[in-house]
Amino acid sequence: FLARDRVGICPLYYTVVNDCIVFASEIKAMLADPMVKPEISMEALCQLITFWSVLSPSTLFKNIQELPPGHYLKANKKGIISECYWSLQFNPQKINTNIAVKDACDEFERILTSSVKLRLRAEVPVAAYLSGGIDSTTTTALINKISPKQLNTFSIRFKEEAFDEADYQKEVVQFFNTNHKSVVCNNYMISEGIPNAIWHAESPMLRSTSVPMQYLSKLVRQNDIKVVITGEGADELLGGYDIFKEMVIRRFWAREPNSKFRPLLIKKLYPYIPQINNANVNILKFFYGFKLKDTSLPYYSHIMRWNGGQHILKYLHPDHKILINEFNPYDMWLKSKPTEFDNWGELAKAQHIEATQFMSGYLLSTQGDRMTMSNSVEGRYPFLDHRLIEFLSTLPENFKLKGLNEKYLLKKTMNGKIPDSIIQRPKQAYRSPIGPAFFNGSKVDYFDSLVSNNKVNEYGVFDQQKVRNIIDKIHKSKFSTEMENMVIMTIISTQLFYKMFILGEPKTGNEKPNNTLRIINDN
Q: pTM for the full model?
């Protein structure tokens, strides 16, 4: 009997070989069994490139499956049965349209406080991650209220100013008087740490954001802390992501597709990305006008992100041309959507996709549990308490996303309890460098080797000439776009994945981060 938590915080895999069921929480443990042979699934890789994760229950390995979140499995002489015991639902008949905002805030705070209190139970000290955003500031405030003794908090900072949130972090630290430490990531640390992140994530990545998280958990462990409270889940459940607001803008724009002004609203979402902020109307229409008028599509909210993945698929090896031509991510996703999905509200649909595809498949695994546990630190997630999820699913959509004001309920609840500047600050997505980490002159041993013509041809995943072209272009221009950064990250992380898990070659050189962290004590 196997069972997995409701939302997929922790992984669980299994396969059947020679009438034996082999299972583990890490695939590398299963590969230690000589009966289990590693083979990459190119279809699953296409899914990962498109959706940022593989559609459950598939994995990147042929014949190895994950037990989906909220499922249990029974294996006996009769065979294997997998059943769902819990799922995220947005039943329109259960939406409480009569509830007042104040009452919703009170109930939300009551459940969240209970959730935090439950997750503070431990025989060891419990610390908290503090990004400087409203989610981690809220958990910090509640911990401080429940247990007034000085709290240990930890955060990531970046040498590159565009990614750094240090000013907000310091403000929260001073407000709650926490014992705070930060790890400062530079470009070389990012590129140096990617192989070790891939080893623990057991997956390629389209972004480098897992690497700083691994450094952060290392800092926590070096301070003799084994448990941390984090703010994951708030964005998915309370309408916090830019992708939700992007959907609202595109639907508004679709009513007048020829408008010269409506596309400019896109700039309000991404002031931290120069290529978007400096773009003219025609460029915005070209990139963000994709299937603009197809508002009836059930995946309308995510079609822009998924279409970006189609661009990366063009870099795969010509041997996979038939697979790529026949690969239809939209039909694949449609087969996996809940039967009740079409009856839900537009935000609810987007939330479900984000929670089940991005959060479970990517955020909680590749960037969450895998990176904390790589340093033997347990992450705990108050916003993912099933009582809170089920309560929020009954609230009207404008309690979450009110116009373009994200996480409206959370802001109303925490008004006067955390710094005003944190509530009023513009949303800034957590990002980390990619292009500068590889093309800023500070070389890492593995990069040139893995993107060499010989290695690219030997592994047979990518088109050698296209890989060479994009690398030469970035070297020559000394600049890379957001999409080019994702292409580079996908290529190098997949090459590393193939080397480690398919070929079984040991980690060498600087594929494991050194023991030196640049730490700042903000007290």
A: 0.93
